[in-house]
Amino acid sequence: RTAHTLQDIFGGAILIQFGIGGWILCMAAYKIVSLRVLSGEFASMTLFICCILTELFLYCYYGNEMSVESARVVQAAYCMRWARTPARFRRALLVLMERARRPLRPAAGRVVPLSLDTFLKIIKSSYTFYAVLRQTK
C-alpha cells in the first residue's frame, strides 16, 4: 500500500521531471558545442549537465535497487529458520512470500520504469535528439 501511495503522489511529478530533464540535456549539449572549452560558461554548462544527469541517475538507481531488493524478499523469507516456528507464523510467512512474488516496480507516472535501463534510454534519446538538431543547423 505504501508503494502504491508513493506512486500516486510522486509518479506524475517524476515523469514530468524525466521529460524536462531529457529535454534540458539535449539543449545543454547543443549549447555546449558552440562554447570555448576554457570559458567559464563551458564549465558552468558542464556542471549543469552533470547535475541533471545525477538527478536522473539517482531516481533510476534507487528505483532499480528497490526492484532488486523486493525480488529478494521471497528468498530471504524462505531461507530463514521457519521449520520450528508456530503454524500461525508459517501461515503469515506464506502470505508474505506469496505477496512478495510480485516485486515492486516503481515507475514515473506509471509509464516509465525507474531502472538503470531507463537512465540509458534517456541519455540515448537525448543524444539522438541533439544529433537531429545538429544536422538541421
UniProtKB/TrEMBL annotation:
The keyword Repeat is assigned to this record: no
Signal peptide per UniProt: none
UniProt topology in membrane: Multi-pass membrane protein
GO biological process: signal transduction
One GO molecular-function entry: odorant binding
Record localization: Cell membrane
Keywords for this protein: Cell membrane, Membrane, Olfaction, Receptor, Sensory transduction, Transducer, Transmembrane, Transmembrane helix
GO cellular component: plasma membrane
Stored InterPro entries: 7tm6_olfct_rcpt (IPR004117)
One Pfam family it belongs to: 7tm_6
Transmembrane segments: 9-30, 42-62
PANTHER family, per database record: ODORANT RECEPTOR, ODORANT RECEPTOR 19A-RELATED
Name of this protein: Odorant receptor
Annotated organism of origin: Semiothisa cinerearia
Higher taxonomy: Eukaryota, Metazoa, Ecdysozoa, Arthropoda, Hexapoda
